[in-house]
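in:
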């Protein structure tokens, strides 16, 4: 069949994905094979594919496809997370466009709209994963609010409450004023911002003023005290005295406490217990009044006495102006500080005292810490173990309640007087509350359920086992077969949100780790090193890139620059490299298929020494690389594995093997050479398939009639390579490269034949490659010599020398002139290296590897100078 001029991925990718799905290749059922289980980090139902998803899912697909080709029962479970905050924000936005306020709806009415939105938009990202070629078992698609999953989340809450791990308490939390909900510490992203530091004068009861510096003057209205260091001589006379809050003149005490450091700001601190985590601790210690001056939407409350109903940042401007007008501002300075932003809405977070539900983490964390530190669970790269250990050893209690309607509703029930119990249903709760309150006449109408939902991560920490109904249907066949899962691929920024908590849940509810390995990807950044985001406008349209370059090229481009755990500076040129690689493969296919028309009959063929060597060498090179790739994949060095395969195909196969094995001009093709070449091409496609599935499947079927598909073809185990043949091939490549370079430099055209003189201690190595060497450098003959040959071009190969004798007269004057210029350059280069090495300070302070590099530069330069000098002598 005639192949198209260029590889066009769009139609081919759609064709093969449909074929794989129709064949049920991605479906998995428990059997007697070794399972290889991967659960997708469930993307938010609000999500669309971005470059981070591209990297994460490419890596998962590579691991799963490789396992499938190894004969394992590969099961990759897809699914989505309900994403409470993000989804509720989307639904509220949709309602706003319809002119409907959330506040005008009942909870059930709002949830009807939320489910409608989820059904319409919630599966978009899963459909997009198909375009990337992801081999997910679509029959297993899970959702964190599926009925069974929902029940399991509620049951876990009840169980942990009964065990004493979950409690309700009033504590300082991070508050998202935009989403109007609590956040956990891990959901706060700290950014360095340029602020202003306001030095504010507070009048003292006994006359005079004390100056306090603050970046949040709007919180002044909630001040309950002033704190100074007891050892600070400037303020000792003020201990126990009083000052007045500016503008509202509330009388507050001056307290001494070592919490304030001597060198902090002005040495005096305003204490606002309702609006600062540390101030709250001081407030508890000294029994200070807690004055909450802010509403849940970030506007000022009645307790502020001023600016009631105005937004906190508008108040900041107004209060500064009013303080200045009243003479309270001493000075204003530019100030760089860290400010917490909501990971979900990017709103500036407000510390707030709030009654919430919490999980006590210390005991749950203990087995999860041991599992990672003892390598029962392996982190790749291992450097993340230290980060994990630090967090787990300093773990804080987890705030799990969210002031939202979309999500898993907290199964707590209250009476009007504040008594409460935790139960699965209102009926169960009523029975318990009658006992708790001693009121037998209570009815369902007298009790109400908690309005809050659970933190999204409280459901996703059950993901590795609950996607197999491991809790809702304990000890079922599937969870017993697929759990623990094999590999988790995720980003390091959710190591605490999700990874640590899944490990805790695994040990608590399955008595076993949730996965064997965790592969941490890096963060995809732009060329300036900025994290990709919609707000910065630096995040490319991934689906557009797939349309432009093809899914294989995009997968290639993101992986080639992605060593595990290190951030990726994304550059579209890597996708162009992937597209070029596709074209290289396609052109190689066209070349090999052209040989088909020139096949000779077996009887007329004689063994070609060049082709025989080429086949032996490449077969061993293929075996060598197959073993290397297998080892790299096992070590999760996927980027390095791709580079190794890329080099094998681009250089060894396309540039060397095909060149060595191809017949002469208009010569017939030996069927043995052709069939062996087809076999090599097939094996290369096998090796590359997990990374670039579409083009490899297409080429595999175009090479010859196949009775199976590549995606389910079992890969054989690597065969040991013959080092002697590999060494001969390596020598041949080096010699050809150097001799061709020498010919080019001396303006010898490729068609001009030469006589090649070889002066070597051991000539046997060259005799083994002589026929193919002659063909590749157009040598009419090879002569072995023990002495230098005059009027030739000299080429050095370590201890051996080659003398190229041209049949026509060489322009010795031009050659001599070029050699003298080269000699001058090399001598100057050597002088600069020697200057470094003779510098004692440099030698003493430089790292050993730097010194070794400089010494290698010296040796190489000296060898080049020696060759040039010998070449000059031969002219």
């Amino acid at each position: 069949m005639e192949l198209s001029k260029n590889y066009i991925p769009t139609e081919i990718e759609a064709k093969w994905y449909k074929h794989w799905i129709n064949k049920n290749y991605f479906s998995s059922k428990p059997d007697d094979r070794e399972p290889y289980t991967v659960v997708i980090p469930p993307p938010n139902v609000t999500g669309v594919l971005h470059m981070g998803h591209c990297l994460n899912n490419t890596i998962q697909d590579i691991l799963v496809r490789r396992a499938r080709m190894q004969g394992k029962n590969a099961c990759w479970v897809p699914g989505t997370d309900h994403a409470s905050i993000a989804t509720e924000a989307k639904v509220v936005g949709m309602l706003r466009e319809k002119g409907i306020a959330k506040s005008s709806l009942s909870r059930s009415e709002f949830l009807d709209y939320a489910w409608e939105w989820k059904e319409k938009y919630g599966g978009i990202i899963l459909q997009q994963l198909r375009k990337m070629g992801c081999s997910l078992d679509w029959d297993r698609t899970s959702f964190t609010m599926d009925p069974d999953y929902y029940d399991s989340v509620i049951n876990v809450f009840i169980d942990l409450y009964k065990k004493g791990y979950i409690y309700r308490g009033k504590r300082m939390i991070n508050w998202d004023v935009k989403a109007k909900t609590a956040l956990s510490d891990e959901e706060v992203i700290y950014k360095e911002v340029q602020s202003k530091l306001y030095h504010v004068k507070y009048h003292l009861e006994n006359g005079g003023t004390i100056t306090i510096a603050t970046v949040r003057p709007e919180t002044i209205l909630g001040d309950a005290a002033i704190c100074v260091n007891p050892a600070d001589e400037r303020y000792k006379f003020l201990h126990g005295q009083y000052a007045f809050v500016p503008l509202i003149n509330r009388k507050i005490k001056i307290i001494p406490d070592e919490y304030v450091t001597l060198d902090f700001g002005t040495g005096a601190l305003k204490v606002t217990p309702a609006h600062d985590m540390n101030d709250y601790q001081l407030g508890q210690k000294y029994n200070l009044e807690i004055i909450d001056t802010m509403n849940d939407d970030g506007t000022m409350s009645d307790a502020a006495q001023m600016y009631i109903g105005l937004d906190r940042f508008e108040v900041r401007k107004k209060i500064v102006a009013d303080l200045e007008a009243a003479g309270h501002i001493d000075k204003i300075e530019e100030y760089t500080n860290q400010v917490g932003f909501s990971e979900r809405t990017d709103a500036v977070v407000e510390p707030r005292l709030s009654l919430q539900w919490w999980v006590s983490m210390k005991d749950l964390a203990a087995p999860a810490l041991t599992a990672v530190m003892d390598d029962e669970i392996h982190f790749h790269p291992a450097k993340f173990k230290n980060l994990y250990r630090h967090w787990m050893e300093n773990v804080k209690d987890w705030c799990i309640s969210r002031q939202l309607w979309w999500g898993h509703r907290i199964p707590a029930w209250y009476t009007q007087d504040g008594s409460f119990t935790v139960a699965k249903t209102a009926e169960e709760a009523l029975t318990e509350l009658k006992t708790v309150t001693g009121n037998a006449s209570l009815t369902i109408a007298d009790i109400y359920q908690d309005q809050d939902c659970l933190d999204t991560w409280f459901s996703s920490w059950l993901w590795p086992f609950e996607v197999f109904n491991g809790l809702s249907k304990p000890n079922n066949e599937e969870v017993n077969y697929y759990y623990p899962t094999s590999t988790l691929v995720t980003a390091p920024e959710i190591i605490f949100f999700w990874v640590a908590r899944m490990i805790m849940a695994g040990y608590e509810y399955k008595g076993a780790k949730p996965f064997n390995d965790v592969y941490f990807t890096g963060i995809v950044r732009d060329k300036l090193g900025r994290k990709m985001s919609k707000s910065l406008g630096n995040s490319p349209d991934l689906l557009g890139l797939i349309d432009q370059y093809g899914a294989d090229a995009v997968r290639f481009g993101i992986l080639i620059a992605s060593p595990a755990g290190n951030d990726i500076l994304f550059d579209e040129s890597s996708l162009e490299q992937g597209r070029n690689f596709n074209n290289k493969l396609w052109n190689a296919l066209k070349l090999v298929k052209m040989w088909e028309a020139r096949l000779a009959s077996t009887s007329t063929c004689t063994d070609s020494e060049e082709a025989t060597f080429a086949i032996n060498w490449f077969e061993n090179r293929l075996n060598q690389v197959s073993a290397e790739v297998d080892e790299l994949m096992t070590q999760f060095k996927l980027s390095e594995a791709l580079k190794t395969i890329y080099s094998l195909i681009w250089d060894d196969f396309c540039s060397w093997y095909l060149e060595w094995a191809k017949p002469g001009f208009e010569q017939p093709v030996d069927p043995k050479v052709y069939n062996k070449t087809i076999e090599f091409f097939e094996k290369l496609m096998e090796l590359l398939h997990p990374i670039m599935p579409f083009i490899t499947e297409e080429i595999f079927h175009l090479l010859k009639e196949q009775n199976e598909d590549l995606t389910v073809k079992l890969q054989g185990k690597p065969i040991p390579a013959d080092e002697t043949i590999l060494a001969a091939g390596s020598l041949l490549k080096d010699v050809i490269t150097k001799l061709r370079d020498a010919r080019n430099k001396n303006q010898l055209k490729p068609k001009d034949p030469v006589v090649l003189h070889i002066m070597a201690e051991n000539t046997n190595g060259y005799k083994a490659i002589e026929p193919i060497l002659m063909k590749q450098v157009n040598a009419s003959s090879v002569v072995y010599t023990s002495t230098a040959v005059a009027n030739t071009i000299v080429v050095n190969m370590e201890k051996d020398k080659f003398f190229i004798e041209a049949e026509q007269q060489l322009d010795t004057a031009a050659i001599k002139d070029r050699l003298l210029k080269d000699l001058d350059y090399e001598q100057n280069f050597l002088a600069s290296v020697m200057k470094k090495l003779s510098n004692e300070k440099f030698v003493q302070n430089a790292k050993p590897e730097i010194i070794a590099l400089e010494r290698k530069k010296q040796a190489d330069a000296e060898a080049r100078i020696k060759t040039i000098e010998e070449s000059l002598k031969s002219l």
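note: Residues 181-351 form a domain with the Isoleucyl-tRNA Synthetase; domain 2 fold (CATH 3.90.740.10).
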